[in-house]
Each structure stands twice: as C-alpha cells, then as structure tokens.
Amino acid sequence: MADGQLEALLAELARLRDDDGARREVLDRASFSMLHRPALGGQVVARICAAEENAPELEPLAELLGSALDAARMASENRKKRGDAFLRAVTDAVELAAGQDRLPPFHRMLIASAWARNGLPAPAALEIPAADIEASGLAPGMRNRAEAEAMLDDLFRNLIEQSAGDALALHAALAETFPAMPADMRAYVISLSAERPEPILAKLCCFWLLDRDAAIRAAAARALADRAVDGALSAELAGKMVVLRNWMPRDEARAKVDQAVKLAMRSGLTAGAAPKPWTLRSILATLPDGGGAQSIMMALQSGGSRKVAMLLLKQDHGVKDAYTIPCNSASEQKALVQRIRQETGAASVPATWIEGALSSALADGLAAGLPPAPGLIEVAELCGLDLLRPEAVPTETLIANLPATERILSLSAQARGRLINASEGWWDRHEIVQSWFEESDPAHEVLEGTRSSRGVEAALWRWLDTRRDYWARVVARAADVLSAAGDPDADSFTATAMALLDGRDLKKIPVMLDVHEQTIEAWVFDDPDTDQGATLDEWVGEAEPKSPKPERKGELARLLKGAAITADWIDGFLMAVTLAPKMIAPNRWLPEILGSAVASLTPDSIQRFADLILMRANACVDHASAPAEFATAMSGRSKMAMRDWAAGFSYACGHFRASWPAKSTAPDDRAMMNRVSDAMSTGFSAAEVKTLSQWIAARHARNMGA
Fold first, then answer.
1. C-beta of residue 440 within 8 angstroms of C-beta of residue 80
2. Which of 335, 364, 391 is the last residue of a domain?
3. Residue ranges of the chain with pLDDT lower than 50?
4. Total domain count, the chain
C-alpha cells in the first residue's frame, strides 16, 4: 500500500460513505494487507499526525487505523506473531511522532481512542504532557482542587447528557480519553467521581473495577475503599462489590475491594435489594467458531421498554464483550433478533442454559488473568444473574455433563462410530463449522517446514493430535448448545467430543478431515497477494505462460516416467477440480500433482512440466463446456487410461470432499461419482462416455450459474 494505494483507499472509503457493508469489506482487505506489512501502520500514523484537525482525510485514516488495530488484536489472540509485530510498528510510529513533537493533544486523543475502542493497552507516548494540558486549557492545575472539581462537574454533566444517562456509554466515552490522560489525572478523575452522589457514577466505578488495565482497576478499588472508610458506601454499591470481587483477578484491586466490603459489613451495612430483572423473551446462542468465539443474544422486556443484550465469549479469553441495544418497539426487537438468527445460524436455548455458560467463561478468563467485559455487570443485572460466579469446568467434566454422554457410553462401538461419522454432514447443516481450522503461527510453521504435499498433510495431522483438548472443547461447547436447543445433531457432536478425548484416530473423525483441509486452505490464502476470489478459468488465464510450446505426443508421459501418477490420472484429477461446486484454489490442487511427480522431474524439466499442467487445466475447462470434444478425447483412451482417469477424478473428489458439499450436489452428481469410482476397475463403455460427457457439461453449467 504505497502512497498512491493509500490515496486510492481513502477515495474508496469516501465514495462508500453511506454503504457500511461495502466500507467494512474495504477496511477488512486493507487491514489484512497491513498486518502482512506492519510498516504500513506506521505510514497511517504519520499521515494522521500530518493532517490538520479539520482535514477530511482524518476520519477515514482514523477508521483505517482502528480497523487494523482490531485485526492485530484478533491475530495476537490467535497466536499469530504478525499481530504483535503490527502493534509494535504502530507503537514505534507513535513514539517517533511524540519524540519529534508532531503529536498535539487532539491527535493524541484521536489515536488513543482507536486503541481504547479495540480493548488494547495504548502506548504510553500517547499521554498528553502536563504542560500541553495546561496550555490547551483541557484541565486546570491538578493542585487546584476547586478548579479541578469544577472542571469535572462540567465534564461529567456533558458526558452524562451525551450518553443519555447510560452508564455503559459514559464508561466507553471516558475509556476512549483515558489513554491520553497522564496516569495521575486518570486516578484523580476516578477518585473524584467515586465521591459524587449520582447513581450513574456509582455504576461507572463498578465498570472500572473490571477494566483490562490493572492500574485503572486499582485506582477504582482504592477510591471505593476510601468511601468505605468514610462510611459513605451505599448498600447497593456494597452488594455489587460482593459479586464483582469474584469476577476480578487476584491482585491489588481485588484486595482493596475485599477490604471495602469488610469495612461496610462491620459498620452494619447490608447489601441492598437487587433491582427487579427484566423478562427474558428469548435467548439465541451460536456454536463456537474455530477461534473458540461464541455469541449470545437475549431479547429483554420491562413494561414497554425493550432491549437486546449481546455477549461474546471466547475460549481462553472469557467474556470478551457485553452490551445492550435499546429497541424502540416490539417489532424492532423482533426484526433485530430475526436478523441475528439468519446471519449467525444461532439456536434458541432456554434461560437455564445461560448461567452455566457464563460461569464457565468467567473462570476461563480469570485463568488468563482477564476480568470480564464491564458490560457484563449491566447484562447480569437485567437478566437476574445476581449470584453469577466463575466455575472452572475442565473439558472432561464438560463432556461428562452433556445430556447424551451417559447414553452414548452404553452404545456399541459400531453405533458410536455411526454418530462420529455423522460429523461429515455438519459442514452443510451448521455453517459456522466452515470456520473450524487452525490459523496460529505454530500451526503454519509446521506446514512451512515441509516440502511436499504429503509431508504437509502428515505434519498437520501430527500437529492436530497435540490439539485434541482444544478441539474436544470446541465440539463439546457446540454439543452443549445443540443439546439445550433440542437439535438432533447433539448426539453426534457429543460422541465426536468423546472420541477426540479418547484418542480415536483423527483421520477416522470426519469433521477433523474438514479441520485439516480448511487449515491448509487458510495457510495457502494467508497471503495478501493471493486472489482469493479467482476461479480456475481466471487463474489459468493469468498464470499460463506466454506462447508455451504445444505439448508433443507422449511428452507428459515421458516426464512422469517412474512417478506414481500418469497423464490420464492428471486429466481426471483436473476435471474433478474444474467441476467442484465449491471452488478449489490452484494453490491447493497444484501441490497434489507436483508432490506426486517431483521425484521423476529434474530441475530443468520442472518448468516445462508446469507449462504442460497449465495447458491441460485449460483444456479441461474447455472440455467441461464442450461435451462432444470431451467424449472424443475420452473415447480415444485405452481401458487402462480410462481407469487412470477415473482414479484421478475419484482421488480429487475424495481429497477435496468439502468442496463437494451435500447441499450443492444432486442425486445425479452422486450417482455419477459412484460410477466413476467403479470405472477405476472397469473403465467406461461408449454409452457411459456419452452419459459422462453430458453430466460434466450440466455440472459445469450449474457452477457457472447457467
């Protein structure tokens, strides 16, 4: 993304100002590219620093930085070094700008808000120097308490008005400014707000107790402990702190909260009555994705007021996000819930399910030293989860507690095997399974350390074997949702989770074949220069060398002498790739051919071999839409060559099974694939060649949307 590309990107964002979906796609692509080239993040920071406060490009630049920071955070959580590398690069750029005095207060606050919105600890260099604060009039001298309190009065009054009395919105507004404040000013703001009587500010202090920044948690806890010493802690606030201490890591902040609660209890203060919870109209939960992230949506009502509460849980990270969306009417709420259901494939679960899921997620986060998202306080209050406590649930216990486990244990090995084999169809019925793959650096390093397609596959199977507990937990959490929803696939998910922990050969667990294949596909496409939307036709057109010499009779066969495959096998393989309903990227199928032929090739013949494969791929695309030409070519083969063609076709269908999903294959497709499989032994009769050519043309036409 050179300067010209950055200008083009900014122009594209400006053009799509009113199209949120299209803007999101542009930002996602740009963020992906920036993570692979961290220096680009530094360029964006430099452009922000060089822009005037009212410059039109400042908003899209800040949006681009925020999107890239979000991508970097997710990459870092998924154990990808490029996430940390990008964060280091942009931090270095901020420090350089600060050192060169190119970061005025406005720009510091703008950049700091991008870090805060994405839950990242901001660079210390973004703190506004005290001299700049004094000069800008942002705040009076910290020694002048009267002026400071007057300033905070105005600040809180304005922010409360802007947030319409919503404590969580007030917290978000302040959280975006905190990284630009000096540490002593942050503590001062927290301390003064804790002394104020407004109920919304009491809630704000509770939110700060769950901040990801340990220093902010400690400042809030000290302020509340001081209130307890003065006897100024309300019963309601003391009651909340009794619950919140269980959600906090064991550190200074929690110790201070315990001290405050003890002081309050000694003074005779009892926890106030919890507010009446809202009515839960419905709860939707998704299955966890490949990164272990799971969304929960709850439709709530209190009189004429309606909200939708949103939660995001992530394996090894706990409760990542929690917030509510107000709805103006029942119809608006219903439409929102329906849209969420359609977009996520979420299932309806009973209210009894939610507490267990949240308790486990709380413990999961605390095991990593992470408190839950502050918004959980509000969601728990609305849903009546006043006694929510973390409860660590090991994978073995999670599986043992699933409703179907005891019954499945009593089944025969054959019956359990059938349930496990049913995981072959999950990909079609539960779309989120398409996100089940490994994308961490350790997984990719395993793949990059091999030189052949067979080596890649074997290395990945060995790696996945070390990840049994992770995938068993993902599958078990999915089984938990499906069991609660009464979905008939719950037994299959339960049996598969059990098999993963029991040590069953991963190659005999169909869904792990999907994980294996999709991991390789994700690795191949983990390149910003790869055209992820290219079809085989387009790839052949772009990759075909200029004016290659036509293939001489028997030339490919001579190059393959001594190899495990033949030219006819390659033709069958390429035809299956051409016809697959779900496009198979060239970077996935080409290594299969090269890996089988490389032993028979010399350094001088590899390029010519690649030329011939490209020409054959091009011919397959042509034959797929010309049944007469295909029939003529196939009829000219010997029975042995037909059997080889069928073997190559069947191998590709089986190896890239996920690219032939059940929802995209008709009975005639499956019948023909079975006939081709039989032809590995018998070849094709003249009538069968004609039928095969007609089917190929029809299958290709369906793929093309004809």
1. yes
2. 391
3. 140-142, 530, 532-546
4. 5
